[in-house]
Amino acid sequence: MLISGLALGAVLGFVMQRGRFCVTGFLRDIFTQRSWRGFVSLLIVISVHAIGLAALTSAGVITPEYNELAPLAVIVGGVIFGLGIVLAGGCASGTWYRSGEGLIGSWIALVFYALSAAAMKTGFLNGLQDSLKERTVGLTSIHASLGISIWPLVIALSAVTAYFAVRFLREEFSGPRPATLAPRKSGLAHILTEKAWHVYATAAIVGVLGVIAWPLSAATGRNDGLGITTPSSNLANYVVTGDTERFDWGVLLVLGILVGSFIAAKASGEFRLRVPDATQGARSVVGGIFMGVGAAWAGGCTVGNGMVQTSLFSYQGWLALASIAAGVAIAAKLWLKPSASSLNDVPSTPSTTNDTAVSATAPVTSAATSPVSLPGSEGAGVAGTEASPLAGAFTVAPVALLDRSVVKQEDGKLKPLGDGRYELDTVGAVCPFPLIEAKDAINKIEVGEELVIPFDCTQATDAIPRWAAKDGHEVTNFEQTGEAGWTISVRRGK
């Protein structure tokens, strides 16, 4: 039965990669874009989870265990974890599946996440973990405190989730539609490896997979469902000590996420090794450590707490989710800012050489033609370019890639192309900085002028076109230019 963990993990990794499912982005968008659309996706996961787990529990198939709430550990750990996922560019599950896309920065974060979690759970930092987790208050679940069945809470949450999901879907389908890439495949291949998956459909699938995970895991003696932190810690322990007892269903689950994401990325032309520069490398190291330490204190990550424990209506789950969101809010304020670039820093004479420029008259859904490597990111942008006094060690800077030979310019600079067109080089920038830079740059050009944005972060294939449509800008060209490389041209509308 252990192999079922690998199989389920592979499906989960495939779904998350193709659906651009990122809890970090969902929470980050609340504070950077004032958008709750992504958070509703998380509520969908929790609601589907809650219905399934309540049904399995009522039928006697599973018997969830509830931990006593350790509020100080959960709050401190959650905030630290929230800081870490912003620095690392993804939460625990997001870091696993983005590693499958070839982001070496995610590999770095993953290693330090697993090592720091292992140090907290079983290593030399175990005493530090216990110092806060031992301070409990005797509370376990909301329904236990109220003396009621879990079902009224499940029904109430599902109703609220359905209301907001319908509301956002109506707004989405009644407004301007984002530009999409031209299809190059057909049938099932197009749906699975090319067509953009709606984040709400993806969330529902993730929720179903979470329900399936619990009885499969319980059948192997692991009384738990989806989880990332403890399996990552166990994997690190197994690699270092060879202790086969650590190699359980959960370890195969996280390895499966990596495998499934790799398969999805290769099949969709979205896999390429992308090497970070020193700045992003440092962010990944610190982010990974914060993630491991924070998740160990909080008793779980955005999956274990934010999806599973919330669906069980444990105090730990909901308090941890709120604390993680607080950490993301702090990190967004400190670090998610555009780089200090300006048109005033750019020579006024147009460039005479530009191998990556695309035609402003090309159709929006033109097919990929040339192998250029380029960056992106999903969801977030904020106003203001001044640097935070606390952010010096983590200043925004695009990440240098191995194949950045086509475009030569200073990081964060707009490059004049002539005829009212400018190129914003975001190659190598990780989520969410390409969108942050794009939103900042569009305000520095005139209405009717055009911004050409090369990118290579998969999340930006949805985030940038969606931003352009929402803010009233026209996408004049959108094409895939190579493996994990895209270019989009946006004409300022207002």
Task: Provide the descriptors you would attach to this structure in a database record.
Translation Initiation Factor IF3, 53% helix, 2 domains, 494 residues, alpha+beta, 18 helices, 6% strand, five-stranded mixed sheet
Question: Can you walk me through this structure?
Answer:
It is a single chain. The chain folds into two domains: 3-335, no CATH class; 343-491, TusA-like domain (Translation Initiation Factor IF3, 2-Layer Sandwich), CATH 3.30.110. Helix content is 53%, strand content 6%. The chain has helices spanning 3-19, 23-32, 37-58, 71-88, 92-99, 104-121, 126-133, 142-146, 151-174, 187-193, 199-218, 229-241, 249-267, 278-298, 304-311, 315-335, 433-442, 460-470, and strands spanning 414-418, 421-424, 450-455, 474-482, 485-491. The longest helix has 24 residues, at 151-174. Mean pLDDT is 86; it is low at 341-412.
Structure classification: alpha+beta
Give the strand order of the largest sheet, numbering strands 1, 2, ... along the chain. Answer: 1-2-3-5-4
- Tell me about the largest β-sheet: 5 strands, mixed
Order of helices and strands: HHHHHHHHHHHHHHHHEEHEHEE
Strand content: 5-15%
Quick gist of this model?
Strand 2 (421-424), helix 17 (433-442) and strand 3 (450-455) form a beta-alpha-beta unit. The protein has helices spanning 3-19, 23-32, 37-58, 71-88, 92-99, 104-121, 126-133, 142-146, 151-174, 187-193, 199-218, 229-241, 249-267, 278-298, 304-311, 315-335, 433-442, 460-470; strands at 414-418, 421-424, 450-455, 474-482, 485-491. It has a five-stranded mixed sheet, covered by helices on one side.
